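Trying the structure run again after the queue cleared.
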Amino acid sequence: MTSEEIRKRFLSFFKERGHAIIPSASLVPENDPTTLFTGSGMQPLLPYLLGEKHPQGTKLADSQKCFRTQDIEEVGDNRHTTFFEMLGNWSLGDYWKEEQIQWFFEFLTKEVKILPEKLWVTCFDGDETLGLSKDTKSAEIWKKLGIPESRIRFYGAKKNWWSRSGVPENMPAGEPGGPDSEVFYEFTQVAHDPKFGAECHPNCDCGRFLEIGNSVFMQYVKKEDGSFELLPKRNVDFGGGLERIAAASNNNNDIFLVNYNYIIKGIERVTKTKYEDNLQAYRIIADHIKAAAFLIGDGVLPSNTDKGYILRRLIRRGVRYSDILGIDKEFLSTLVDFVIEKYKDVYSNLSERAPIIKNEIKKEEEKFRDTLSKGLAVLNKELKAQIVKRGEAVEAQKISLIQGPGNVQISDYRPPNSMVTGRWLFDFYQTFGFPVEMIIEELKSQGYYFSPKEYKRLANEFKEEFEKHKEVSRAGLEKKFKGGLADTSEKTTMLHTTTHLMLAGLRNFLGEHVHQAGSNITPERTRFDFSHPEKVGRDILDKVEKYVNEAISKKCDVIIEQMPKAEAQKKGVEGSFWERYPDMVNVYMVKCEDGTIYSQELCGGPHVKNTKDIKGVFKIVKEEAVSAGVRRVKAVLE
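Done. Tokens:
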């Protein structure tokens, strides 16, 4: 089956079983400063897993766009990708293990037609020291469905436990979590590689097994004394990799041949090369161009910081590997058409932003090709100087330098490796934006030889330099104006709701040109940036304060309604970055019994249930300029 067929069948399967089908959230998470991108299906639903009521009910399903930065360097093998879709279904205090396990097994074997004998499962082995019991119940259900005991394995918390903080020992008091049961597909045609251990098993890294789904049974909460107790309501959180399930459906352990064949054919057509002869380059280009298209589609643009830097890194790696295939002109932007055509019926924002996506990738490609040429010239110069420095001027005369990407040549002479250190690699990486493996590849192409021991040393040195840089950058970021919510505590939640009321008040007294330009909310205060060309007088700020406190005193309900984005825009719902939102949106409203609506805005974060829950008097304590056309206020609850 294709991924399109599987996605359609999954959503239909769970809709027939009473689930509301919700749209994918943006790759750019809302009100979550802990991560740059949406990296899992459950991430946008975390408030509801923690107890907030979802407007669509207690049974939900979707296919969520995901992007994981930690997998960038892993792309190139047959299974790692940065962008993927996560099929998900949730029970918010509704059904439990019996229904979940049976339904997923039925979906895999009846809908996707995967042979049951190809499936292995894992369950939680328990932890007696923490009072967490072994999940024998899940194992029993799997056995009843026909999975023999020999294909059911038990693992500890590092493999079969889920919480936001990882293993149970790392969970803070009040954090929910629970055991999970994972399903693996066995590619019996793949022989076990003994370098990964004497015995092959579901969590072996040899490539014989592929995880295709994980059901999390969130049933515990950690207490102050470090022990665990059962949650009042149990939740099921399932995530299944769409592309991985498609690979299993085709019994093909190469995810790219199954899910990226439309891009692969495009690359072959342009480069006149073959996929099987250039696996790494094809896979990196295919993954990175697809991910870049989706990121730009959700509003990310190339830059030197945060999300924009990750996007720039993807495009630059794509340029370098297209260069390896012999393409030294505009190329990546032409592949965008294949991605848009593939997903136009599922993610309309790709079609809507197609000109922007293609233009941004084209500009970045042109810019980096120029940088690449300069960087390779510098690399050649430094290599020649290094050889001369070592008193080997005669050998240096043998070097034949031909400038230009992909055309750098050198004699068979093997130059000394003394110049190459982790620090040097990092400096080159910083200056020209070359991924480290790209630099090593260039050195190898010019006669450098690195033994496994040398390569490991360089990799460790580079990693140390990179970590030092991250620490310095992190310290600098902490001094900057960070966005989103600091946490989801009661005080932060109260200030989050009052911030929305404050924006409504500012728009009421200053005009509809006022929109959010950034926010940072902690338990102590809210800082809020908004568009306005001049200083806001104290008289206006006093009116805004009165507006907010009036809404608090009237004990208005805070409700969330889901509606089509077009309808929300027509109703005048306030929102920034509309292009990032899916076709169906969550509209937060503060509405009183007398019919007054104090605020209606796009939002997916935590709020109080009624303004009576907001403790204290709202006070704006500071107003100042941030930049041309942007003002900032700081406010508290006293």
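The longest strand covers residues 209-222. Worth checking whether this holds up in the mutant runs.
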